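Incident log, structure service

09:12 report received: a user says their structure output differs between two submissions of the same chain.
09:20 pulled the input from the user's history:
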Amino acid sequence: MVEARVDRLDELLDDSFVLVHINGYPQPKADWLDEIRSGSMNYHSIREQSVLVTVDGATAVLVAKNLVSATIWGSKALWPLQMTTTFRQSDGVWKPTHSRATTF
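09:34 re-ran on a clean worker, output below:
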């Protein structure tokens, strides 16, 4: 995200991936990657605070607290974000399918 490597993000994320922003806006993968590509969403740095992963069969949930410096739709800030991301395993590969951002 910080390097704006949308090509790599596209590979890593499931095609069904949806990111729910802190304002509640659910953004499909293609739209989010377009926003990064255009510079409408520019991530400057991400500092990890904590990470917790739980696995149940072919599903996993990652809860990560990060301090995210970004300019999003013209607003630059340092956000304390908790990302709750669901992963699905298929053919031995884990891919994120859904992520919800909240503040902490």
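09:41 both user submissions now match this output. Likely a transient worker issue. Closing.
09:42 reviewer note: The two ends are 20 Å apart (CA to CA). Residues 29-38 form the longest helix (10 residues).
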